[in-house]
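Researcher: I'd like a structural prediction for the single chain below. Treat it as a standalone chain; there are no partners to consider.
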Amino acid sequence: METAALLKKYNIAAPRYTSYPTVPYWENENFDTDKWKGAVRTIYASHLSEGISLYIHLPFCESLCTYCGCNTRITKNHAVELPYIKAVLTEWKMYLKLLGDRPKIKELHLGGGTPTFFQPENLHLLIEGILDYSVLTPESSLSFEAHPANTTFAHLETLYRLGFKRLSLGIQDFDPKVQLMINRFQTPQQVLMVTEQARAIGFNSINFDLIYGLPCQTNNGLSSTIEDIIQMRPDRIAFYSYAHVPWIKPGQRHYTEKDLPVGDAKFALYQTGKKLLQDAGYQDVGMDHFALNTDSLFIARKEQQLHRNFMGYTDQHTHLLLGLGVSSISDGWNAFAQNPKTVEAYLERVNNGILPVEKGHLLSKKDLVIRQHILNIMCKETTTYADGTPDNVYERLSQLIEDGLVQITGNKISVTPNGKSFLRNICMAFDEKLWAKQPATKIFSAAI
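Model: Treating it as a single chain, here is the predicted structure.
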């Protein structure tokens, strides 16, 4: 187990490394929509048999969870559903013209916002509109995020019939004091009901999201939440550190830093939660993620097939990830692109027949090399340089090596068992963009 001293030492602002370069370091001045279209065509043509990944962002929520760092639109007006779905399907058809045929979909994920804000019949309309012009691969994985308090049997049954077998439920904490502070309410009974319904229907992988470091969170309260969850036996558990970024997400100003567990108190939450999960048989897959040894995420990690993209860790790997909807990010391996961050700007572009890409980055040969090293560290916990470890990387890793978190053997850099909780810090040593230009303002959350 990591010591509190090490956790404190390395609890610095750090990227989450769902991409390299990270979004704040994209060089948008060299990017345009035509170059992005060319990158999509090229990577798709060179990996036809592989299939593509698809992420669809559904931003609407009926109320604001004040801890949330996602791109959301708060409304109780469900009339927004159909116009938004129409726009997403229009954007999809724009990409279909670029691809030139019926693409194979290997991975499809609905994120939010709250996907279960949408009525089941409208989700059916959306997914049917996607699948009418594509083919699911035999190993395809379809998943969606859901709020336990508004997920109905009809939601589960509708999506299951369309091919969805994976469900992710946002729990965060069952402690009433914490729920009041973050404006996120669901009971263990609601979560258990949705979980049992999903399993009865046929879902074969269920994930629960938990967060440590929330306002008013205590060791006893978090322990009680995890003990309840262990009884429900989800296949996966994402145990995230709360990212306090009120300069980006004003909703987090609902409370103050005085309400947050910091320093040793936050480290204790992390250590307690991790021990409870591991004692219950959950394996540490990678940064923030735990899974039973029967789950495909653990199996992918064991077989060195784990991948990481803008959706986080996945057991699927494609070179082309298309993001549809407001603020969605696409990954063409050699290029990244992001849609507008407001619903209005997104709808305006799509409704005017314009591919709604607002900014992006074209990866250089050096970017691609660094990207692969960071992916290797994040997913395999080891990477090898062909011509010896560069002096600058070795120097940046020196303190981590001294603290027993990293070891170097020849050209091979490996994360030690104690280093698994410091993957973000380790990856920073490879991040040439970050070292070349240290941020002048706060843009990343704390590593732990």
